[in-house]
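Kindly draft a sequence, keeping tokens residue-aligned:
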Amino acid sequence: MSTSWGYGGAGGAMENLLRQAQEQQRRLAEFQQQRAELRVTGESPDGLVRVTVDGDMKVGDIDVNARAMRLDSYTLAESLQAAIDAAYATFAERQQELMTEMLGGSDLVRRAQAGNLTPEDWFRQFGVDLTDPTRGLRR
């Protein structure tokens, strides 16, 4: 007696699941690469300070206009903080855009950010019901 594990059987279902997992792994690696390469700039409202934040969310370049040297230390610190805040806000927006592209839907992004996205929900978007142990075995 021979058992067929061809396409449509358990073997086909496993191959399909493996392909989907590999695709998700590729998409995640692409997201991580794009995020690592991300560079954004924020500017203070007075235009005197510009700050760049890199993919590790570290403040990199700080450009202080020579006119800012006339400010008192408190006002200069406020301008610097405003530029940093603007850079982080821009970084968060760009990161969300990248996540939306990767996940393919804003609802999934919101749920992932809130910590409410389960593996079952993730795979369901690709037509895979992880709760059905007999999927792919029926003909």
Notes: The beta strands are 40-43, 49-53, 59-64. The longest helix spans residues 73-103. The helical segments are 10-37, 73-103, 106-114, 119-124.
